[in-house]
Amino acid sequence: MDAPPAFRRQLLASIPRLRRYARSLSFDAGRADDLTQQALERALSHWRQFDAEREMAVWLLSIAHNAHLDALRRDARLVVTDPADLQRVQESAGSHGGTDVGLQIDLRNALARLSPEQREPLLLVCVEQLSYAEVAEVMGIPAGTVMSRVCRARARLRRLLDGEPAGTAPVLRRVV
Fold first, then answer.
1. How far apart, in Å, are the Cα atoms of 134 and each of 54, 84, 125, 174?
2. Can you give the CATH number for the domain in which 50 is found?
3. Is residue 168 part of a domain?
4. What is the residue range of 62's domain?
5. pLDDT tens digit at each of 176 positions of the chain
């Protein structure tokens, strides 16, 4: 039996948010499209498992998160944006008069330098505007862990955008 029309409407309405999250996970439009399609296929094939009391977007983001982790395990490697590619994009965009492109590339580069454990909850909270509890549900971790990771990600992102050199470790303080 096919999914009911109300389910399909909610699913369609959630696609932009799902795609944005997939893009933030992979930093690659092609991989994001594949992840989005995979999450939608899983949702449609398991539509009976959807609890109508939950928000559709949170359920879909959970599916996408798990699909992404499955792909990482399968590939056994991380996708990293090549800084040379970012430089070429920045130079190309600069010749077209884009004034905000440098900031966008700096932010994208800084986000790429965050660990996935920090980047994913940060983007879910800041971009997707999910609550800490919803992010905890999506990622399958405690809400306190989400808060800690988001706090550390924000601090690291600030340092990276302020020009912290690659490989610089944060200074640890000793509490006596």
1. 10, 36, 9, 34
2. 1.10.1740.10
3. no
4. 1-79
5. 688 888 999 999 999 999 999 998 888 889 999 999 999 999 999 999 988 888 899 999 999 999 988 887 776 544 455 666 656 655 655 554 444 555 566 788 888 889 989 999 999 998 888 999 999 999 999 999 999 999 999 999 889 888 776 555 555 566 76
